[in-house]
Amino acid sequence: MSAGTPRRRRPAAAAALVTVGLVATGALYAAVGSMAAPATAATVVSPDLIKPGEQLYKEGCSSCHGLDLAGVPAESVGKGGARANGPSLLGVGAAAVDFQVSTGRMPVGAYGKQVVRGRSSYNDEEVAALAAYVASFAPGPAIPSEQDLDFKDANLAEGGELFRTNCAQCHNFAGQGGALSNGTYAPAISPKSPRHIWEAMLTGPQSMPVFADTTVNPDEKRAIIKYITAIKSSPNPGGAPLGRVGPVSEGLLMWTIGLGALIACTVWLGAKAR
Amino acid sequence: MTIAQRAAATTTTWIDDRIGAGKWLKKNLRKVFPDHWSFMLGEIALYSFILLLLTGVYLTLFFNPSMKEVVYNGSYAPLNGIKMTQAYDSTLRISFDVRGGLLVRQIHHWAALLFVSSVSVHMLRVFFTGAFRKPRELNWVIGVGLMTLAILEGFAGYSLPDDLLSGTGLRIAQGIVLAIPLVGSYVSTFLFGGEFPGTDFIPRLYSIHILLIPGILLGMLTAHLLLVWYQKHTQFPGPGRTNKNVVGFPLFPVYVAKAGGFFFIVSGVIVLISALFTINPIWMYGPYTPDQVTAGSQPDWYIGWLDGAVRVMPNWEIVLWGHNLSLNILVPALIVPGIMFTLLGLYPWIEARATGDRREHHLLDRPRNAPTRTALGAMGLSFYLLIWISGGNDLIAQAFSWSINAITWTIRVLLIVLPPIVFVITRRACLGLQRKDRDKLLHGRETGIIQRLPSGAYQEVHAPLTDDAKAKILSARESYYEPIEAGPAVDANGVAAPKKGRLARRLSKFYFEQRVTPPTDEEIAEGQHHAADDLATVRPAGQITSGH
Fold it and tell me: Which residues of A155-182 are buried (b: 16+ CB within 10 A; e: fewer)?
């Protein structure tokens, strides 16, 4: 009997093997994961912006998100008081700040089921400063550059396919938005700002899932933006589009205008016989 | 005789000698039809059906009902290079490349919406006026069949283009088939030729849509119209109108002109709508693939109530011996519509049981004169409307910023609470209107003239009714029933009466226990006398004679 055989068959050997396997898999995953993520991690922050950003943040954001950006947990807010608790902003990145603040969602105007789009309280420079300040705490998704958003060479049809697979189930086939549960909703997508569409995909605001570059890569993001821009400005060869919301508005039109006009005609024809 | 007249005479004589239609035509061209706007609702359905046949034939020339996969390479750039079935590909071609294709497609679709909606309002008219009573029960059943087929036909057409919306609809239909206990999965496999979606279904649906159902529709439609011809059209009560005559105008020339003109009006309205408003922009939806879906996936309006029923149903499932009984689909999509259509088809017999009436009816009821029927109809309508609204709950939530869950719960509660309330209110409203009618007959109509009596009291002057109004109100007698009374429990020979008929008596009591008795001739004569006296005291006789 050799010395190695019994040791190999000891119960502890199996456990050790599993441990080694798990550690190896974990290490490998971490390595691959960090290889896939550099685009979001490498946020260049201009130091000139951080200082004014800090001031703006303390004035406008810190009451809900905390001075250290770690957020204010719901429990710490008094029961009778306003629900001024906000999530942690550590690692949300400049993209999230730019999206939330420049679409007017943040700072919150009124608490409801969902924070609504509105006019931004800050100008572009202030938004940039805020984004820089928040991004300086921890790496996160960056604001897309002009090259990122240049969708001229993107594939329109592929964008449509991706849009129908990833976006249409909440935002509807024409990007008109749709209802979600308990009073929340997917808003209509505005084609005016490709930057915001990109940032929404990257950061997943509110009910929206995150479509990171590992899921929908930048080329695909550009294709989706191109498709949205194209259909939003596409003509309606069939006539008035009735909101592009499907058969409900069509049925409504037939029951009101269509049948209404025809019943008016029957009354007219019936009356003439007298 | 001019040459033209002689030519016409020669031709007609030639035809008459061979098929002998002259005599038949002479009689039938003079056939009299009564006049009322609501009698033209069925005509709207007929004309939209004709339009559907015409446009449908044009579409078959270009549509390719195949599920073979092709790569799109056509005029609509956002789909170029996308894989799709030939069905969707050819529908895109019809929409963008075939001359007049999009317009014809839109006419076909809008006409389909109009077809089912006009069938529905026609049916409501027939129901609320009691036109389904003997001898027309059979035609009512044919009508219910036509309605069902129209809905099926519409759904088949909606599913053919194989765009994202129609595929989603088919997926739901397949889910409903799967919910049939025991045989569901077998039926689904049989229908789809294997797993959903497979490659067989669209060709199959195509033959059903362009051959089978239209064929049956056409046959039943002919029977429907022939029965109207043979049994004659019902008429609303009025002076000189009885159960034994038809007061109206002859088919030729009055109705030939009216109906012919109305066909063009209906066609014109549909074409105008089709030219101005987009319907089913299939290019926006993209081709169907089972892994995609769009927010606000809705069926056309006539399936909306079924979809809505599924949407409000709680998510109940029972697992029996390892088999799922999907009550969440089975109840709203199969059991509820099954009950609704069965009740609808059987309604003439249900009401006949309650009235115990075997007479023929050619005079229509005014809805108020059949309070229980009207209330039942309104109740059914409120139920239908609620589940119909539920079918659009997501769009309502979006449009009004409401919570979709709140809408669903509201409709669940209303579905139980509202129909009985509607029933009670409608019946009371009908009875109230009948009482008002009775008052009018007894005391004349209110003139709006206030008279001061020598004693200083004031009173309103009443004027006698016109013949027209009187005949209308007096028709309440035709619609008047008392509950069927039970005979003596023991007859003259001491034999106990059979228990049979208890159900009918109970039904009859439900229908006619609450009622307003129309006044007798003597009561009316006395009342009108008073009214005339009233009037004579304020103004010389004859000044207020015309009225409503």
Answer: bbbbbbbbbbbbbbbbbbbbbbbbbbee
Q: From CA B452, how far away is CA A240, in angstroms rounded?
A: 62
Instruction: Indicate the fold that domain B43-344 takes in CATH.
Output: Cytochrome Bc1 Complex; Chain C (1.20.810)
How does DSSP classify residue B486? P
Give how far A71 is from chain B: nearest CA, Å.
Answer: 28
| Phi, psi of B546, rounded to the nearest 5 degrees | -80, 140
pLDDT at A79: 53
The verdict on a CB contact (< 8 Å) between B398 and A270 is: no
CA distance B71 to B67: 12
Mean pLDDT of the B286-310 span: 95
User: In chain B, what residues touch A250 (CB-CB under 8 Å)?
Assistant: 113, 277, 279-280, 300-301
Residues 6+ apart with CB under 8 A from B164: A164, A168, A173, B285, B286, B287, B288, B289, B292, B293, B294, B297
Q: Which of B284, B403, B468 to mutate to test the interface with A (most CBs of A within 10 A)?
A: B284
Residues 78-137 of A with CB under 8 A from B: 113
Lookup: tokens for B352: 């006949």
Chain B residues inside the 8 Å CB shell of A257 = 273
Q: Do B117 and A259 touch (CB under 8 A)?
A: yes
Question: How would residue B544 be classed by pLDDT, with cut points 50, 70 and 90?
Answer: very low
The larger pLDDT score, comparing residue B372 to residue A39, is at B372
Helices (H), B232-321: 256-276, 282-285, 301-312
pLDDT at B309 over 90: yes
ipTM score for this prediction: 0.90
Of B44, B79, B295, the CB nearest to A172: B295
Domains of chain A: 37-141 (1.10.760.10), 144-235 (1.10.760.10)
Q: What is the pLDDT of residue A9?
A: 66
Kindly list the domain boundaries of chain B, sorted by start residue.
Answer: 43-344, 366-486+498-548
Q: How many angstroms separate the CA of residue A274 from the nearest CA in chain B?
A: 9
Across A32-36, B196-200, B522-526, least confident range: A32-36
- Interface probe for A, chosen from B171, B300, B398, B400 (most Cβ of A below 10 Å), is B398
pLDDT tens figures, B505-534: 999 999 999 999 998 888 888 776 766 666
Average pLDDT, integer, range B22-32 = 85
H-type alpha helices, chain A: 4-8, 11-36, 38-41, 47-60, 62-65, 93-102, 124-135, 156-166, 168-171, 194-203, 218-232, 247-253, 259-272
**Rounded (to 5) percent helix, strand, coil in chain B:** 65, 5, 30
Quick check: A161 and B286 CB within 8 A? Answer: yes
Residue type, A256: T
